[in-house]
Amino acid sequence: MNQYNLTNKVAIITGASKGIGKEIALQLTKYGSNVMLVARDSSALKKTKDLISLNKGTAEIYSGDISNPLVFNNITKQTLDKWKK
Asked: What distance in Å separates the CA atoms of residue 51 and residue 73, rounded to the nearest whole number?
């Protein structure tokens, strides 16, 4: 039994296409969290999402540069629309 239960929690992970961001996303979904994967490299994001799906996790992807306020607003809107939190 795992000590962490993140069921029904939602996280937006920036830099989720590789490195630390990818590993954070994998770990959060391992414990039940839903994640919005964000980075500029859409093909790498898809690979991360596919890996999460293979492990029965739930993830969505958004490709964009979060330094742009409009992109950041769209990410939060999509996350809220998808998971209602």
From this structure: 26
Asked whether the whole model's pTM tops 0.85, one would answer yes
Which tokens belong to 11? Answer: 């996280």
Beta strands in the chain (DSSP E): 10-14, 34-39, 58-63
Residue-wise pLDDT tens digits, 26-43: 999 999 999 999 999 999
Q: String of b and e for 53-82 (b: at least 16 CB within 10 Å)?
A: eeeebebbbbbbeeeeeebbeebeebbeee
| DSSP alpha helix (H) spans, 14-68 | 19-30, 42-54
Low-confidence ranges of the chain (pLDDT < 70): 1-2
